[in-house]
Amino acid sequence: MALKSGSFATFLIVCPTCFFLGIIFSLFPYDYPLLWSTAPTPGSHYDYLEAHLRFLHASPPLIPRILHIVIFLGLAGLVAKLYKPSEANMLFDGASLVLYMCGITVYIANIVKGLRLVTGGQYGSEVGDSNLEEGEQILGREDSLKVLAASNTILALVLVGVLVLQAGQWYAERKDAQEYESLNRKTEERKEAQAGKVSRQSSVSKKKQ
After folding, report:
1. Cα separations (Å) of 161 from 97, 150, 185?
2. What dihedral do alpha carbons 172, 175, 180, 183 form, nearest 10°?
3. pTM for this one?
4. Residue range 137-146, pLDDT digits in tens
5. Nearest-CA neighbor of 21 among 166, 168, 157?
6. Structure confidence by residue, pLDDT tens digits, 144-163
7. In whole angstroms, how far apart are CA 182 and each of 5, 179, 186, 187, 196?
8. Where does the pLDDT of residue 205 fall: very low under 50, low under 70, confident under 90, or very high at 90 and above?
9. Chain centre to alpha carbon of residue 22
């Protein structure tokens, strides 16, 4: 079965995905008042969020290295499952790879850039119009933090999609295996019934002789 041969690759996909979802969930108490709460967000909450993000961005180099290694492990698991792919691999693992790459793009383009912006402490409205290109929008402090929180939500949805696709592949392969075993069982029973009928006919013919 493809599931047995690719079980370790599936492990490499599911574990990093759950690891990243845990990191995003730890940021949810900071993101919830910005995006989902109907009550006005107090100004002190932005201070707490900025202090937390600066602390994360100033973490020792070992921390981002471990994070990037885990990202690479998930990508390696997807590539390994797509080596000599079957039809199910192309459908589920191909879509999982697309979602995973979308997550990496959100991480690099929005989250990393947002962390650098928060650490610098100078937002678009504070920089001024001199450094802006034509058509570029100016985002203040609150809007920049909301964009960063929305990026976390988008990344969480993308990672949940990867888990759903992997679970769907497991279920589809499990159903195929059950149907294959049921078909083999019926074929063996049919062969045994035919063999028993032939043996009875031969015994009857011998009695007549």
Report:
1. 11, 17, 36
2. -140
3. 0.80
4. 567 888 889 9
5. 157
6. 899 999 999 999 999 999 99
7. 22, 5, 6, 9, 21
8. low
9. 12
